Structure formats: C-alpha cells, structure tokens
Amino acid sequence: xxxxxxxxxxxxxxxxxxxxxxxxxxxxxxxxxxxxxxxxxxxxxxxxxxxxxxxxxxxxxxxxxxxxxxxxxxxxxxxxxxxxxxxxxxxxxxxxxxxxxxxxxxxxxxxxxxxxxxxxxxxxxx
Length: 126
Known about the structure:
Layout: H1 2-21, H2 31-52, H3 59-73, H4 76-88, H5 92-118
Helix pairs in contact: 1-3, 2-3, 2-5, 4-5
C-alpha cells in the first residue's frame, strides 16, 4: 500500500513542479528550477524535523510526502539539464553560479527548515 501513497505523492509533487515551472522569467537563467529546489529543500528539512522526527504522522504518509511529493517536486536531473543548456550557449559563468547557488541555497534552506521544524511553537513565539 505504501507504493500507492508514494505514487500519489509523486503525482501531486510533479503537478506542483509543473505549475511553478510555468511562472515566466525573462532571462536565460533557470530561476524556476532553482526556486523549486530551494523550496523543496526547505520543506523537506522542516517536514523531517517538525513531523517525521516527532512521529506526528504514520510512516507510510511520511514516505508519501517526503519521497513521493517532495522528491518529485525537486529534481537533480532538471538542475543538471538546465546547467548543460547554459554551457551549450556559452554561459559558463552563469552555469557555474546556477549549480553552486542551487547547492548553497538548497543546503541553507534545508538547515533553516530543520531548525524551524525543531522549534516548539507557542503563542509567545508567534
């Protein structure tokens, strides 16, 4: 049954990815993919510490959301293809910035998500 939930999460994540990917950006830089991967890193970090580690959700649902939905929302293959396309048109510096920026922002936002997920929210924190 967990395969079904992972598949369902994958459908939702890939649709979300497509929607965000359709947001127009006037430059050659693949901004949409960078935003998708940064958001996904943050959400997975937060989800891991706020939900999974605190066991607030059944493991089958955690897998469906983490692996299925967030995993299909973000993707290394698109990042790689975007970088290759930048190199193909001679934008070596932009390609380097894109790959490095994606890694740095992804890491940063995963940490931020983890830390926010670990916080105990009360009325005084809001």
